[in-house]
Structure formats: structure tokens, C-alpha cells
Amino acid sequence: MDVDSNASVNPVYGDKIDGNSIRLLKFSQSQDGRLTGRLKKFALAHAPHFYSASYTWGAKAYSGTVIELKTGQLPVLQGLLPFLRMVSRHEDFHDEDWWWIDSLSINLADGQEREQQVQIMADIYKKARRAMVWLGEEVEDGSDCTGAIDFLHYLQNLQPLFSGKNAEYVRNNLRSSGMSVQWASVSNLLSRPWWTRVWTLQEMILPREVKFFCGNTSISRGKFKAAMYSIFLCSVGDRDMEVELIPRQAFDTAFNRRRVHQWHVHPKARGIALVAVLAYLGNHSATDSRDRVYSVLGIITARDRKLIGKPEYTTTVQHQYSKLVRSFYDEYQNLDILCFSHLFSRYSGPSDPGYENAVPSWAPDWRVYTEFASPVPLMASQSASEQHIGNFRPLHGQKWDAMYDAPGQRLRDKADVRFHDNLKELWCNGVILDKIESVGALGGCDPRCRSFVCARDEPLHGLVQGDISMHKRTLESADLVSILTKIARSLVLGRQDKYLRFVAPQYYTSDFLVLCNACLESEILPEDPGETAISTFATWFRGNRHLRLGTHTLEELVENIISSSNPPLFDSLPVPSIHPGSRSDRLPMYPPNTSADANSDYADNFLSRFLDTIRKKSRRLMVTNGGLVGMAPCRARPGDAVVALFACSIPLVLRKAGARDGWQVVGEAYVDGYMNGEAGQLIKRGTSNIHRFRLV
């Protein structure tokens, strides 16, 4: 429900409603196009059967058309009028049907009524016999969706064929040029604004039944979900999204809603966590940014509804987003929510909104637009965090056995978190692991970063090396392999799979070495899993070959390991899962390592994990002054501190700010060797001290 209240009091709303009642509407259209109706108050618990409408408000302009009531007139929004006219003449509906339509049933000029109705919005949609989603006319505003619904009906029947002997024939037929018109129509349908409005998510998820209308044609929610899965099966083939039949952004938005609905209705699901769904809504829009939180009250867990409290529209967006962090900590005794300022920050978008409009750096600014909605956008979204953060991995992937816990339980008990009364400052104990000396390059790898800060780099996302202060001793053979292993683990964030469920296998180090060697020999890299991954790795290696790791560059490190003999260092590594390439005369040939099958799906391999880290998560390889290796946010710079806050599972990159020893949150970091409580040993040995951080 978006908001565009009328300044004057409309007499049709004379019968006041509260948090236990609603207004329902009957309407009809005369032959000359006039709309007439009846608006009546009901107790929600005893309301008659009614339909609810889900639609896009558009420019929030009124059409000039009104619904004539005995008590006055109801102005109709431009975006709603075509839907009302369709309903009036459609054979599935009747003049005696009751409807709940937000812009007509709620007096939006009454702030108290608005807040009360928002609070029971979930109950309204659950109570409705069916929600009718209006996606617009088949042809409007340069968007031609002719035949889209009919094609979706066709697709929803094909799912069994993708697992049969004719699967390849079905794929090839659907991918043929003769189907281009149908795919264009569906693409236009999934690009309609309805899919990216925050309120429409729960309007699709909560009702018992949902039907999507485009013009006079319709499809049920169940059949739509089946059609989306058929599109997925047709697109993937043997690789992740091998063929883009629909623009990826449009596909992901609709497909992710299918996943959210699965999580909502599955009997074994634990519910949807607030932070996970707020991150998912990063590419959605809202007229009032406070509705980013209130619009999902109906689909999140009871604990998260409790921490939000009652909807209210009197305090600022900035205050509410900061308050959300405090409420989150009060409920979970955890600050993992801070990690989301990595994506939702004043500095993460293409332009600076300015200081006056900014939230504190430690509070995620959920207003920031993110182009892609990833099921697992951050390390804090790890599958182990499902109780307080959550993610949208497939339901069949609920098993996990790996967890990031940088401070460990002993240090968590010493966090001593405090918030200033004005909610502009936060204090928490932690330890500085080290300061960043160098950050690697991402140039040419097409990362998803859209930060105006990074856009000022020359070159864009280029290699940045500080003064080389790392120890200068000559590295022994064991050191070379150890550093290579740290780099390989860092590039996959220490995990085997994109849902961060399982520890990365040791052979990922061997795979990394094979790929680096192929780059040095200018070979054609191994074919698995596709040209995009191969070319991206080669580009990344070229950009980072001169990154210094102690006395060696990355290139020298690889050369020394490959060329070593007596005994060959490569033989000390696990068997790789990929072949080094037929022309390589420096690496032995082994049968591929197939031990990946136990806990992973077909897409889990070093290259796919590398792509997820470098491209989708926009992480840069980092080296610290003391020789730690890891991955940093793309906005990190030499001199930034890498910190383990005692209330946060993931290390953070912090930057000094102001004269009063304040710190800004830059984003989350992977620090190899310090992701599972090892920070406690630094304090125990006396090599590091507990630091009181004031985040601003």
C-alpha cells in the first residue's frame, strides 16, 4: 500500500474504523461508463467473503473518474481505473462481490487510521478469499504483453519434460527464434512496475489464493510458479543461466518471489527473517521508505514483528532505521545486521545523498537501490544465521555444518554494546586484527559494485598497494603453499557453496594453482564451467599478478610453486578437480577429483565460487600490514582497520572518522585464519588489546 492522502476529509469515511475493522466496497459500471458503489464497515473477524486487489499506484495521479456513493464520491487513481473497468465487465466477477482496495477502503488522510490498517494488513490479505493482481492492460506505455499469460499457461505444463529423454529437444524448441515474440511478451510482463513495489510482495505471498491479470487473461499463483520454474529449467541447461531468455533482472525478481512463497508455506520452514527480506527488497521501490519495513510485517517471524513494534509514520526514516538496529540487538544480542551497511550505505550507490539525509554508517540504509537481489548477499547471510539474519536458499538446502563466528562465544560475552539516546552513535568492544596494506583489482571483472566512491578510482577498481611494510624474510617452501592456500580460501570466502553451508574443500587450492598456471602459460583454460568464468578469472589474474604478498608478487608465488623440485610442491597439494590443460608441461595430469559430490550441487566448484565472490559480492583480495590475507569490500582502502567486533559474527572494515576517535563502517571482511574465534588468542597472548569502538 503506497500513500497519497487527500488533504480534505472525505465524508464517505464518516464511519470510522480501527485496528479491528475494515471497509469493503461493492461497485458496478453503467452502460455509459459511470461507476457506482457502496462502502460499508465490517469487523474483520466477521467480514463477508471479499476479494483484495493488488496493483501499482503509478504516478499517484487521480483519473478524474469517481465512484458515486450515497455519502459522496471516491476518487479513483489512474493506475486502478482500468482494473475496475475490467472487473465490471469480466464474467468471473459480479456486482454483489465485496472488495478491499487500499486506496478506496482506507482514509489515507487520517494518519491514525492508516497506521492501524497497516498493522492489520497481513490479516486482511489472509482473510480475503482471493487476491487479484493487476499487471495492467496487455498493451500500455510501450510495453506489449500480448499473449504473455497464454504462454505462461503453456510453460507451466512443460516441467516434467525437462527431466525426460526429450529434455534437450524441448529446450532447443523453446530457445528457437520462432519463440522470440513469446519471450519478449513475458519479459515485458515481468518488467512491469508491480514486481518491484515493496507492498506487493506480501500481497502475493499471504492470500490463500492469488490470480494474476493482464488485461482479461489470468493465471493462478500456482501455475505461475510452475511456469517460472520451467523458464529456469529451460535457461540453465548444464550451466547456471546458460541462456538468458528473459532479462536476468526481470527473471530474478519474479523467480525470487516464487522462492519467498516456498519459504512462507513450507511446513518445515522456520519462517522468513526480517533482514533477509529487507535485503531482497533492495531493488524494490516505495513511496514512503518506512514502508520497506512495514510492508513485510505479515511474512516475517514473530520475533522480528516484535522488534519492529507498531507501525508509525511520525519519526524520520533515518531514526527508524537506526532504531531497528537497536531493537535487533535487544532481541538477538547480536550486531550482524551492521554487515548490511556494506550494501545499504550512503556510499554504496551511484550518487551521494548527502550528510543531512544519511543514516549513521553502522545502520543499513534500506533506501539504497541494489540492482540485484541475491539469495545470500553477504557472509552475514550464511545459512548458519537463519534464526536472526536468514537467506533464501532452496528448501532442499537447509542442511549446513559451517559457521563464521569471528569473536567466539567468550568474547561475545564482553561486547558491552551501548547506543546513544539520539541513535547516532553506537559503542561496542572489539579487537583490531590489523590494518590493510593493499587491495586487489576488480577492473574488467564486471563486479556488481555501483558505488560513486569506486567510480572515482583511476583506473576503476584498480590494484591499490600501500607502503610495503610486511615482513621481508625469505619465504620457505611451506610458506609459499600456505599463502597460496590462504588466497584460494579467501577467493571462495572459505566455503564450498554459494549458500555458505559447507567448508571449502582443500582441492580448491589445487584448482586455483591450475588456473593461475594456465594464465601464465597463456593457455586455453579448462572448459568447466563456462567462458564467462574463465575469462573473468584470466582478467582478475592479470589485474592482480603484481599484488605483493611479503617478498613475492602473486605471479612470483605461483611460478615458484610450479617450478619447485625436490620434492615438487604441487605434489604436496590435493588432486585438483580440473585438468591443467593438455599443453601444460609443468603440471602433472591427474584424473579429476570427484569428491565434491557429497554436499554440493552441480554448480559448486572453485570457479563458480570465485565468480560469486569477485563479481556478485564485489570483493577485493586484501593483504594487511602483518601479512593477513582475506577479502575486503570494494570500497576498502590501505590504512583501513580490519576489526572483530565482539557482537558481530563477521569481521568488519572500519575507517577513522572525525576528531573524537569515531569509526565508520565500510563493510564486512573475510580474514583467513580469523573467522572462528581466533581473535581471542590474540588477546590471551597479549599481542592485541580490547578496544572500545565508537561507531558513527
TrEMBL record:
InterPro entries: HET, HetReg/Transcr_Mod. Coiled coil: none annotated. It comes from the Eukaryota. Signal peptide: none annotated. Residues 54-203 form the Heterokaryon incompatibility domain. Transmembrane segments: none annotated. This is Heterokaryon incompatibility domain-containing protein. It comes from Paraphaeosphaeria sporulosa.
